[in-house]
Design brief:
Length: 124
């Protein structure tokens, strides 16, 4: 059995109408300290989003999801931050249309495969 490391992850949720509290899962952010790894994978189901809010700003939501991925890739202002700092910034609570869910933990030998597995399991 290969060595497994602790990882943390949070779902990225889209809450098109904050006052209603309805949401869809649109991504996963995963951090593995032992591997200095942070990544986000997103997938927006436009049909599900429109079911919650027919007037949702789909382009705006897509841009926000790309920004989450960009922070993980150390783009822009996040360029100087280490993976842990980027993860903590992304999981900070916020009242926006795109927001993080609670943090969960697990063990993995391959964080890159794990983020894809979680995206398939919890988002797609």
């Amino acid at each position: 059995m290969s060595e497994r490391d602790v990882f943390e992850y949070a779902l990225v949720r889209v809450v098109p109408r904050i006052e209603r509290g309805e949401l869809i899962n649109a991504g996963v952010v995963l951090y593995c300290r032992a591997k200095s790894y942070v990544a986000a994978r997103t997938h927006l189901d436009e049909h599900r989003l429109r079911a919650l809010d027919s007037e949702a700003d789909v382009d705006g939501v897509r841009a926000a999801l790309r920004a989450v991925e960009g922070v993980c890739d150390a783009a822009g202002q996040a360029a100087g931050d280490n993976p842990g700092q980027r993860f903590r910034w992304l999981i900070a609570p916020r009242s926006t249309v795109v927001q993080p869910g609670p943090v969960h933990t697990g063990l993995t030998a391959d964080p890159e495969a794990e983020v894809e597995r979680l995206l398939d399991l919890l988002v797609r």
